[in-house]
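Morning!

This is the sequence you dropped in the shared folder:
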Amino acid sequence: MRSMRGLLLAIGIISLLLWPVLAQDKVVLRRNLGTEPPTADPALATDTTSVEIIEQMFLGLTDLAEEDMSPIPELATSWEISDDATQFTFHMRKDVYWVHCDPETGEVTELDKVVNAHDVVYGVLRTLDPRTASDYAYVLYILKGASDFNTADPEAENFEELRAAVGVEAVDDFTVRFTLRTPAAYFLQIASMWVARPQPQWVIEEYGEKWTEPGNIVTNGPYCMKEWVHEDHMVMVKNPYWPDWDKAGGNIDEIYFTMVQETSTEFAMYLNNELDLSAVPLPELDNVKSDPVLSQELTIRPFPCTYYYGFTTTKPPVDDPRVRRALSMAIDRKTLVEEVTKGGQIPANTFAPGMIFGNAALDPDIAPWALPEELGGWGYERAVEEAKRLMAEAGYPDGEGLEFVLMHNVSEAHARIAQAIQAMWLEAFPKANIRIETQEWKVYLQTIEKDTPVENVPAVWRLGWCQDYPDENNWVHEVFNPVEGSNRPRMSFDDPYVGDLVKRFSDLTLRAQLEQDPVIRQQLYKEAEKLLCDDIAAIAPIYYYTQVVLTKPWLTRHWHDTNHYETWSIDVAAREAAIG
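The structure's back. Tokens below.
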């Protein structure tokens, strides 16, 4: 730990920025986001950083319970589901108001506008409107007419008819009804998502793209945005008019979000009592575990996310599935999680982890070469031999002629993982030319979009996926279905190698949506996972996440999938005694 203490002098300027915030007579939570949120707009968010910000400011019809991720009321007080599970009617509470925060004074004003069913309908239709260009609109394709509206030409004569045909309506001011194209019990969990949250139409129409800036933004959640200095920090203040503070039980008056990308700097700030929680840099994890103080502040717990490398399947040399499988086989996942990440992660052979309904995680029928022998797999020695054979069969013996870019967003942890995997690949294919490139998070997300020109997209790229709700539909279908999913690997029915398998994959995930028998759904998803990760090899799943977090002893936190800071508490006296 001594080497990390030396970093504290280097970040003194950050201390000077943070301490004035603590000098206020408020309970301030200090948290590092790790990057600039790409957006605070519920219709446009696709990443966990943006969602974390949105979660504090906008309520959903439902929320997900901390214990088991089951749907619980939030804006809705109750709901009815039709016998055929295609119609969901939500009855909304009448005591949640839109509020505005003055960025100069931090004063929150309650507007004379109650959040209502019309705000929900507007939010859903705005997300689906093709002019909004929401990359997450596909999540709402379960609604009747949603896909047709989202993919329509706004200049078409029937555009307004398509909008009116979407399966969402305000039955009255506080009752909203959704009509689905197919039965979906998990729709109660989709109703918790940011893309289905109410949005303030009058503010968006007045300010356009600037509506989420401080002074413009109007929200309804437990916190309001006071300040957003882009690429530097954001400040949120408590919404005193949010009616559930007594039930929430937290005491956080203000949240100060920094946007420091380097985990080593974040960790140093934590050691210097400038942050109340922190990630742990990979090189420091062993030291933290052995430190008598920090080890007591460390939490490692399973988390419903998967770390993976995606392949741009239309870009040589990874347009050949043999190359993709060989690259996936040549990743020594056991060594990676034991020697590099060291956070109790589990080697992954499928996309969805074990806590997701319909998952096939660690089933050796799928990509057994990804699993060590003790988990029922081949083990790395056998896997790498098969990888060498496949690569030679594809025309790249020992990697000769194999050249591509591996890209990840800026992060010390992602860099260490990429360097380790690059070394594994070069050991297996010593004549290959594999370069690592990085981009800032917001730019990176655009680079790997499925509609970015292929010449501007890396052949291999890093991402993680965390559940929006715990069902395989949110994983293999919404992320990868070529017709309705985000499909960053660009899987296509016209693929000369595996087009028929891609069509099979698409059909399976669509059939699983329609199927009501959970046993049959499980079987369909297992086959889809095998196609995605093994036969087509559109991605290389690497490991199932854990949360590795340091938390100061004065902070009492909860472990919800998305942080609910209104439930967190700080013992101010204990913090002041520790800080001095």
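Headline: Residues 1-23 have pLDDT under 50 and may be disordered.

More detail when I'm at my desk.
O.
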